[in-house]
C-alpha cells in the first residue's frame, strides 16, 4: 500500500509538471485556459490523494477549492473577459517556443538537483513532491516571463500558485485557515487583475504589456 501511495502521488505531481510544459507550448489563449483548467483538476486530485494517504481531512477542502475556483470559475471568467475585450486569440511570445522549452527542461533539472540535495533528511515522498512543486513554480514563472499577453501572464501566475499549494500539501499539509486565506487572496488578486486587464484594453486598445513600455518611453 505504501508503494502504491508513493507511485500515485508521484504520478499526479509529475502530471502537473507535464501540463506546465503544455502551457509553455501553447500559442492560443483558449487552449492555454483549457490546459490551465486541466492543471487545476490534476492539482485537486493530487491534494485529495495527499489528504487520503496523510489522513488529513482538511486537505479535502483545499482540493475542492482548487477544483471549483481554479478549474471552473477562473477559466470561465477569463473566457468571458477575452470575449468582452475582443482580445486577439494568438499569444505573442517574447522568446520562441524552442528556446522556451529548453529553458523549462533546464529549470526542472535544476529543481530536482536542488531539492533532492537540500531535503536529504526528509521523507522520500515529501522531498520528491517538493522537487516537483518547485518545478511547477519555476515553469509558471517562465510562462509569465516569456509571454507578452497579460491574460497569459495571469495564467502563469495562477499555475505558479498551484505549485505552492502542491509544495504545502506534500510537506504534510497546511492549516485550514491558511488554505482558506490563500483561496480568498487568489480571488481578490483575480478581481484586481480583471480590472487591470479592462483598464489596459481601454487605454491602449490591446493587452500586450509591451504597450506599457512604449507608453513609459513616450512619457520620458
Tell me what you see in this structure.
The structure is a single chain. Helices cover 83% and strands 0% of the residues. The chain is built from eight helices and no strands. The radius of gyration is 18 Å and the shape is globular. The model has no long low-confidence stretch (mean pLDDT 77). With 220 residues, it is mostly helical. The longest helix is centred in the C-terminal third of the chain and has 29 residues, at 176-204.
Topology record:
Blueprint lengths: L1 H24 L3 H26 L3 H28 L11 H22 L5 H23 L3 H21 L5 H29 L5 H10 L1
What's this model, at a glance?
The protein is mainly α and 220 residues long. Helix content is 83%, strand content 0%.
Radius of gyration: 18 Å
Number of strands: 0
Helical residue percent?
Answer: over 70%
Roughly how many Å apart are the termini? 64 Å
Range of strand content: under 5%
- Which residues sit in consecutive blocks of at least 5 with pLDDT less than 50? none
Helix/strand-derived class?
A: mainly alpha
SSE pattern:
HHHHHHHH
Mean pLDDT: 77
Amino acid at each position: 500500500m505504501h508503494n502504491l501511495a508513493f507511485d500515485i502521488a508521484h504520478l499526479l505531481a509529475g502530471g502537473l509538471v507535464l501540463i506546465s510544459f503544455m502551457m509553455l507550448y501553447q500559442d492560443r489563449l483558449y487552449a492555454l485556459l483549457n490546459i490551465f483548467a486541466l492543471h487545476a483538476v490534476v492539482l485537486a486530485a493530487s491534494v485529495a490523494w495527499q489528504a487520503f494517504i496523510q489522513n488529513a481531512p482538511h486537505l479535502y477542502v483545499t482540493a475542492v477549492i482548487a477544483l471549483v475556483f481554479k478549474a471552473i470559475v477562473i477559466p470561465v471568467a477569463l473566457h468571458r473577459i477575452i470575449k468582452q475585450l475582443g482580445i486577439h486569440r494568438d499569444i505573442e511570445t517574447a522568446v520562441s517556443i524552442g528556446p522556451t522549452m529548453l529553458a523549462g527542461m533546464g529549470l526542472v533539472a535544476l529543481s530536482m538537483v536542488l531539492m533532492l540535495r537540500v531535503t536529504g533528511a526528509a521523507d522520500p515522498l515529501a522531498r520528491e513532491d517538493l522537487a516537483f512543486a518547485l518545478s511547477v513554480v519555476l515553469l509558471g514563472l517562465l510562462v509569465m516571463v516569456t509571454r507578452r499577453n497579460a491574460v497569459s501572464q495571469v495564467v502563469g501566475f495562477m499555475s505558479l500558485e498551484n505549485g505552492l499549494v502542491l509544495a504545502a500539501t506534500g510537506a504534510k499539509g497546511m492549516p485550514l485557515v491558511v488554505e482558506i486565506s490563500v483561496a480568498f487572496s487568489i480571488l481578490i488578486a483575480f478581481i484586481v487583475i480583471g480590472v487591470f486587464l479592462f483598464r489596459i484594453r481601454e487605454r491602449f486598445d490591446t493587452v500586450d504589456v509591451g504597450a506599457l513600455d512604449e507608453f513609459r518611453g513616450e512619457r520620458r
